[in-house]
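Handout, page 2. Input:
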Amino acid sequence: MRESFDYEQLPYSLEAEQSVLGSLLIDPGCISESFSYISPSSFYSERHQKIFSVFLKLFTSGLPIDFITVLDAVMLDNIFDSEQSAKIYLTQLMDMVPSIANFLSYCKIVKEKFYLRSLIRAARNIVDLATRAESDAETILDLAEQQIFDIRQDRVNSNLVPIDEVISQEFDHLDRLLSGEGQAGISSGYSALDALITRLSPSDLIILAARPAMGKTSFALNIASRVAFQANVPYFQQSFIPAISSLTNGLFLQPGRRTLVNVKYFLMTLRILGQRK
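Output:
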């Protein structure tokens, strides 16, 4: 018997959604804090999605946000049947808020419920794809992975960050560098390169471009191994060069001849053990 999912049974918290919107009516300054957690689609109720979109529209347009401006905006968007019903519901939203100090907690609840609903919908789509079997298994697996990846990707992405927070963090970072308390990234092992790119920093994408046989792979290997030995962490390198042995030889030679000798004895030991078996 085929199982079906009822959309009405999907997880949501009506009280948390109402508390988020009510908090924004009481203190519109909270809206900038909500961007890292929720968006209009995070709400279960379609009406709540539209009301939150009104807040975003007013905020991005630089217009004031209060009870009157929100009331006027929701009426222009035809979210309510009458102005009286809009007034009553917006007032109820404000009365629903237990404590505006817990605004971020309400946002987190709304976000978590949204992720659970997204996961259920993705699982339902995967079941439907596998049941219909209109595509081969490899294609269905790719689609399933993509749907789960989209949910996970949304969890790690923050939407908007206030510029004052970014500037404040950057000034603190610069102060630590000037006072000698901090260090800008990891050294590549080449002082001239460090001066040009301000050392290696997380999330950097560095592209080496040159004609063939100019030493790009060896140069990249030198930097990667230097950083790996300095930070004592593993690293991954993918190369399309046919002679892969040239890469391993270069790697073994870098720390010094003693390391090469140790590697040689290690490989000889493995060979002897293999012959005994």
